[in-house]
Amino acid sequence: MFAVALLRSKVFVWTILVLPGLWPAWPLFVRQDPSALTDPLKFILLHFGFVACVLLATVLTFTPLRVLFPKWDIALALNRHRRLVGVSSFAYALLHFCVQVLYVYDGGFGTLAKEIQKPFQLTGLAALVILLILTITSVNALIRRLGAKRWKNLHRLVYLAAALAAYHQADARKTFPMQVVWIFGPVLLLEMARVWKHWRGAQRSPLKV
Ligand code: HEM
After folding, report:
1. 148 CA distance to ligand 1 centroid (A)?
2. Atom 33 of ligand 1, residue of closest alpha carbon
3. Is the pTM of this model over 0.70?
4. Taking 80 as the threshold, does the pLDDT of residue 172 lie above it?
5. Sequence spans of domains, the chain
6. Residues whose CB is less than 8 angstroms from the CB of residue 142 and which lie 6 or more positions away in sequence, other chains included
């Protein structure tokens, strides 16, 4: 199937992951959109934060999709790119943080230190630190060194990172952005379905548990 072959292709997935990083050039330089040009750095800051959240939520759907539909080729193809998509989420979150540093830089780091003490920025920082740890420990040599069980336990922190990122995104605006529900809602539903499938399996064959 063409879609499966496309999703298996590293070139295609890399393209999908890099394009959102280049997207701000379109409204800023090509279309010269006044709403983006009013405050270009802020526009880029929000855009990178948004992409980081979307990629984080996307990678969290891969395992539940594979568990729920073990024979579905698309779910299997997507699972080949878990590490790449997870690391990309960290890369966009880091870019988002760097833009925030540029945004508040006034010749010193005093403003940054003051800003970062806001609760929504602290949750962003906590999420970023977790994503950094997960990225570092995704290197093959470290996976081997940690061992499968410890690595899996450590990487469960991704759920905490997602919860922190969702809170950060919701709290960044004065009114609750429905975006958070569209981005993280599907992950929650898929995880609930996964737990339900596991629970039903355990009920049917209690000796295996
Ligand atoms: C040290 C780390 C971080 C800092 C200092 C930070 C800072 C900020 C700031 C200043 C805003 C803009 C708030 C406004 O509208 O004025 C923001 C929004 C946002 N951030 Fe972060 N952030 C951090 C980490 C993260 C991480 C790790 C993610 C995602 C994984 C993220 C995702 C977002 C999103 C989605 C928004 C809202 C975008 C929108 O409203 O369109 N941030 N952040």
Report:
1. 32
2. 49
3. yes
4. yes
5. 2-174
6. 136
